[in-house]
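Reviewers of the previous submission asked for a worked example of the structure-prediction workflow described in the proposal, so we include one complete record here. The input consisted solely of the amino acid sequence. No template or homolog information was supplied to the procedure at any stage.
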Amino acid sequence: MKIERKNRAEARVPSSSMADIAFLLLVFFMVTTVLKLEEGMPISIPKAEAAQDVPRDKVMRIWLSGAGEIMMNDMLITVADVEPMVVKRLMENPGLIVAFNTDSGCPYGVLSDVMDQLKRANAVRVSFTAKRELKGS
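From that input alone, the workflow returned the following structure tokens.
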């Protein structure tokens, strides 16, 4: 008597875990890949060598706070007030120097708006002031 086998072995690849394997490979390559960002060219910004004291009547000071407030000669003003005030002072003194000082937390939009107002007022002598560096620090 001949015994028949009921179970026949089929030659097939199980595809139920293919998505898991693909996901694990993806995670593996994401974790082990090192991306090097382009560094670009180094920029060296010049530092001030010396400072000059200018008489107070020849300088108009503009301060921008970290909150975006604008102060011109110790008066709190808006962006729209910058141009008329600078034009008025330039009429009185054509050699006027605008000393521009900003807080590091000042919003860039406010800084840009004030610079645009200075361009419209034709203020060509603009000085960007900074804190003096103490010797030994």
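The chain has a mean pLDDT of 80. We consider this example representative of the routine output the project will generate in years two and three.
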